């Protein structure tokens, strides 16, 4: 099993920055990629950014140039540095671990990010 522990959410004014962290534990060798998704009230959950075990990074268009995803493989931790935050970035942010083969995805509990104008 894999467990994900998120931290770093909070409230910030527009234009500000936040950094989210997600630490994986347990059977971390089964993880192929980790990423961040977000879900605002009334909206579907959407991909924000992901990074694979081979270092391939993918960003949603709406965060390109503002957010940076990185990982510390020794600590099995992925980070999301968020800058130039906008009120529309307000959402619950979820850490996700995609695993090899037919193993199911693992989700964190979510952390609230609120950006005020």
Question: Can you walk me through this structure?
Answer:
The protein has strands at 2-7, 10-13, 18-26, 31-39, 46-52, 57-59, 67-72, 77-82, 91-99, 106-107, 111-116. With 117 residues, it is mostly beta strands. Strands 2, 4, 5, 6, 9, 10 and 11 form a seven-stranded mixed beta sheet that branches. The chain has a four-stranded antiparallel beta sheet with strand order 1-3-8-7, with no helix packed on it. It starts with a strand and ends with a strand. The relative contact order is 0.32.
Blueprint (SSEs and pairs):
Layout lengths: L1 E6 L2 E4 L4 E9 L4 E9 L6 E7 L4 E3 L7 E6 L4 E6 L8 E9 L6 E2 L3 E6 L1
Parallel strand pairs: 2-11
Antiparallel strand pairs: 1-3, 3-8, 4-5, 4-9, 5-6, 7-8, 9-10, 9-11
Keywords:
117 residues, mainly beta, seven-stranded mixed sheet, globular
Whole-Å distance between the termini? 40 Å
Task: Assign an overall shape.
Answer: globular
Percent of residues in β-strands: over 45%
* Mean pLDDT over the full residue set: 96
Low-confidence stretches: none
Classification by helices and strands = mainly beta
The total of helices stands at 0
Cα gyration radius (Å):
14 Å
> What's the main sheet like?
7 strands, mixed
